Fold:
Amino acid sequence: MKRLHCIVEGQTEVAVFTAILSPYIYQKTGAYCLFTAIKHTGGGIVQFSKIFPELRKHLQEKKIVTTFFDYYGIHKNHQFKNFQEAKINQHNAQFGVDLLEKGMTQYLEDYNVNTRYFIPYIQLHEFEAILFSSPESFYDVYDNQEIVNYIQNIRNRYPNPEAINDSPQTAPSKRIIKIVEKHNNTYEKVIDGQDIAELAGIEVILENCPRFRQWVNQLIEALNDL
Structure:
């Protein structure tokens, strides 16, 4: 059977993508999809040198190997190749993400790892961006129309959900936390993030998030060619 292995940052992504992305990809390719969190973390990104052994191991097998890391959370101490050019000397986040993705491939190739089946992916700007694809889904989780209105107002100010990010204080997750807490609720990333994403559905997310959609289509194409 064709296989896809995706390494993600934490249990939220594992739960969400297992629930909504795995069935979608299976429908399109017949491939078995496995999503696992980075081994050396309780959630969040780590130094790339700690991720490298996992990628090297998986790339020894005939399967598509990919990643889902948040651009927002990658910092200098994580020592990603091309970081300086991507996040310090580069104000275009889209271009910066592309540089970091290329850097992952280059890092592997520097150690003679075959990257034929490797598709690196970094989410612009973070996982919570895709939740803005469906503001109405927040109502089913929090039962509060004002929360929906705030989410919708933010969504309306950007060309797509992936463009939502002005600073570390206003990244998608920080906006959601602030809005929800203002209305006497709590954003539980694993539980609420999964519920909102499942309520939105993969089709709506793909329609609203062009970079995420491009990644998924690339995975499907690679799996069909495997």
The chain has a mean pLDDT of 94.
